[in-house]
Structure formats: structure tokens, C-alpha cells
Backbone:
DNA sequence: AGTATTCCCGACTGGGGCAGTCAAGATTGG
DNA sequence: CCAATCTTGACTGCCCCAGTCGGGAATACT
């Protein structure tokens, strides 16, 4: 799960598509103008979104793109996965952490990144395009809780820099 | 909150430092060998960690680096923040989303990324070096819950690709 | 048929940051 | 003094993002 501006552009465009389409296709040129994204760049992104099965295309005059799924079932995580190429998570071989186990105690951090990836994916899976259109992204009500983390759970803002 | 290999290296090194130091300083050369990271590159990282106040340095023979804080109070989020330079979150001006409000409906996604950043930061703040050393990173017991997201909370693995 | 509109595809480019190297200088223990 | 170690700065190669360009294919409209 990579988080770059690329994925953000894709989500912006998909939100625009979701909120402006009333059943008829939307031309990329419209989205490009509204979201102030280069048209040619958008074409690249939507090529991937189409291959990922997230949008359907209609060619010819009056054509454009349509959501392939109902707005409530279009998850943000799917968009990002479709657009961003996967990143090699640690330095371990994908799948089996064979490279980790070779010299033990090396990838103590492996579990951490894996779990973090799960957390991010889980959160983004819980947000649909409908949620964003309805502004239901939920504010700063802390949601993550470390099930077994006593002790340093206190003083949450001592050295905590502003979340960027 | 940026997530690159750079931050991972830093965390790996800090975990190594935490688990191998018994009060006496650890030379970077040792960490470099154990973690298979270039020594010169580690030097750069630890320069930032030192400026961030996460480690203390001891010069001269027998010198090296020490954790500046107790192992339980060294949070992963602090390490990553210290090492990775901040990323411009959206395309909005940092702080006030003035650029967003200019043409409305553009940054509907703004809240999403901001909230996601909070989630990540919150999770990484909840993990200390002590947790990692004790392998208490907690497995795949889903922790995030969308407080107000009924409906599409079901079928969690239908199109969910393998978490990478 | 012809034309305009739109998607589709591949190649190309400039820049930024990561990963890593190299070469010095500063500081301290033996 | 000398060796070990941190400290600093400049330098490099490379990959990928963001964006551009030129053309080609499908379709609606006249």
C-alpha cells in the first residue's frame, strides 16, 4: 500500500466522477478542468483504473467514464491499489519472509510494517466514495487502539509533533 | 507522515540499538554490519536522529550511540518523523486549506488524507521500541474500526487484495 | 461518407528524492 | 601521539513521479 500524490489524484478524480455522473458518462476533459489535473496524466490514471475494473469507458462523442460499481461499494483502497504499483514492503522476498529468517533478529520490524499496512488498508477499505461525497470521513475521533499497550499510553501529546 | 524505506532503515537501526545496548554506547559500524545497511548511509540517518533528540552520541574510542529516552518511551512515529522530511500532504497550503476553499468541491478528499495521516500517526505512536523488541506488535487482530460506517462493513475480503 | 468527439496507447522528458559513496575534520580514550 | 569513532559536507547513479506529445481507434451525428 503506497501513498503518493498519484493515488490522491486518482481518488480526487473518482470522487469527481462519482459526484458529477448521473448515469451518463463523464469526459476526462471535464474532470481535468474541475480538478485542475493534466488531461494526459488523467488518461494514464484512468487506463489503470479501467484495467483494475473500477470504471467503465464509453467511446465516441458524448462518451466518457462511468463507475463500474455502485458508489457505496467503491472503496478508496481499491483505487489506490489499482493506480500505485506495489512497493516492496521490506526487503524480504514477497510473500514468505525467507530473507528475514536467514539471519534472525534482523526483521524484528517485519511484523510492524506488515501490521501497519494492514491498518492502512483496513481504514481505506472502510471508506467508500459515497462516504467522501457525503463528507462522512469522520473527524479526529481517535479510532485506532492498541489492544495491549499499557504504560506509555499516557501523555499522548508530550513529544507528539503536529500530525502532518 | 511519509513511509519510505528510509524510515524503515531508521527503525531497524533503532531497534538494533535498543536491543543490543546495555547502557554502553554502540558503534554505528556494528549496527551497519548486523542490519546490513551501508555505514555511511547510517551516519546520515543518525545525524537526523540526533538532531531530533532521539539518540545521544559518545565520541572517541568505545564511543557510539545511546538511546536518549527509555526504551518504552521511544515511539516509532518519532523516528520516522525525524528521518523523513515532511511531505506536502495534499496540494493545499500547509496548515490552512486556503487553496482548497477557493474552488469548492475540489478538496473533498482533504479530510480523508488528513484523517488517514492521523490514523497512521496514532498507530505508530502506540508502538514503542520495547514493543518491537518483545515482539508485541500484535498480529492480525483488526484494530481499526470505522465508528460510523454501516452498510459496507460486511464482505471484508471480497475484492480485498492481499495486503502488501 | 465524413467529421468531430472521445477514449486509448506508447514513447519521451525533467526533476526530486532515495540509497549510497567519498573525503575530510573534530573529539576523545589509551 | 595515535587510533577509534563520531560529524559534516559534497558528490553520484538511479528510479519513479508528474507531465507532455503524437498518433490511433471507436463511435455519434449530420
Residues:
Amino acid at each position: 500500500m503506497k501513498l503518493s500524490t498519484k493515488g490522491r489524484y486518482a481518488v480526487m478524480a473518482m470522487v469527481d466522477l462519482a459526484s458529477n455522473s448521473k448515469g451518463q458518462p463523464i469526459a476526462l476533459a471535464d474532470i481535468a478542468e474541475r480538478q485542475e489535473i493534466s488531461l494526459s496524466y488523467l488518461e494514464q490514471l484512468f487506463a489503470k483504473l479501467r484495467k483494475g475494473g473500477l470504471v467503465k469507458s464509453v467511446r465516441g462523442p458524448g462518451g466518457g467514464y462511468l463507475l463500474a460499481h455502485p458508489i457505496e461499494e467503491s472503496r478508496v483502497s481499491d483505487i489506490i491499489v489499482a493506480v500505485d504499483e506495489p512497493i516492496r514492503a521490506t526487503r524480504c522476498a514477497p510473500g514468505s519472509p525467507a530473507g528475514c529468517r536467514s539471519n534472525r533478529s534482523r526483521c524484528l520490524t517485519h511484523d510492524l510494517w506488515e501490521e501497519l499496512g494492514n491498518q492502512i488498508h483496513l481504514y481505506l477499505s472502510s471508506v467508500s466514495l459515497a462516504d467522501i461525497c457525503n463528507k462522512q470521513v469522520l473527524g479526529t475521533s481517535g479510532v485506532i487502539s492498541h489492544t495491549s499497550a499499557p504504560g506509555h499510553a499516557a501523555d499522548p501529546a508530550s513529544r507528539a509533533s503536529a500530525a502532518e
Remarks:
- The first strand of chain A starts at residue 55 and ends at 58.
- Chain A touches chain B through 73 residues (CB under 8 Å).
